């Protein structure tokens, strides 16, 4: 009952010289129930190609597949742009408007009912699934009267609009909590970026603070990885901080790690067991994440580790590094993996008040951040719950009984 077509193939050859730059939709632009037009690109196409693949009001767009989350995503084109075509990994379905409401159909294919059909009939390899035009053409379309289709689509769109409004509100709350956290960081460090290198310039120190070379108040250590070809050097009692876990450990004291080495691994490598209170800063790939050792342990070579002296509170250094994260990441270099190299790390300077003031700043900052983090968790919980609502609404509308 429908006309089904794939879109334009990129990288094709044409003998025609009259080419026009025209917007085109990619798989990334097609979401369930909506289009993300913020990243629309353009392609050179002939007048004949534009006429062939030009989208019209009411066209159903359905993704062919790829990663499992890209399989059978569908929405309805409502002339969001004056002129647009689509790539060949998006199916365009043109239904007879006297029998089918395009919004009703697009909502149906995006429901759990539609997803189950596509997944059951898709061609699958590891983590990849795709459908062809035959599978799409055989979709068991639920077909109440056109009047009922329009009513169901109208009611669903109204409900989904309410859900989207709630999602925006929860997202705004999450962003506000992030902004609050950033404001707390700035205020705690008196609007100074507290870790810097002289070549990049350092802010004026607040009254009672001073810039010091970080290696003058803390010993800089690197880490190492015992040989992976020796399984007997792994799985022991020595916690070993690695990039695998650092994102989860960021801003905390690490009591233990999932990856462990042992005394033989330490003895037969350049890895060293560092003391409690050592501040570990990821310097490669995931640059800028920070944790503090709650007990003696070792790290990989992906970390710069500072063993703090008497003048420096480890938590103050951790929060200072977090406050300066954006600026420090800009110091990383490298084509494949961005890295801050040890000579640069050795040149770090720290804006430092006295030890008593450091402790007071840390305690106040932790209390304030706890409030901001609780607000973020609450907003994220709302977002997670709201994310489930569209599928529930669609499941109710297209339940088979």
Would you write up a description of this structure?
38% of the residues lie in helices and 21% in strands. The chain has twelve helices and 23 strands. The chain has helices at residues 47-53, 102-109, 112-121, 133-137, 146-188, 214-217, 243-249, 263-267, 314-323, 325-329, 342-346, 355-397, and strands at residues 3-5, 19-25, 30-31, 34-35, 41-46, 60-63, 65-67, 74-76, 85-86, 90-94, 123-125, 128-130, 195-196, 210-213, 218-221, 234-241, 252-254, 260-261, 279-282, 290-293, 298-299, 303-308, 349-352. The chain has a five-stranded mixed beta sheet with strand order 15-22-19-20-17, with helices on both faces. A four-stranded antiparallel beta sheet has the order 1-10-6-8. A three-stranded mixed beta sheet has the order 5-2-9. Strand 11 and strand 12 (128-130) form a beta hairpin. Helix 2 (102-109) packs across helix 5 and helix 5 (146-188) packs antiparallel against helix 12 (355-397).
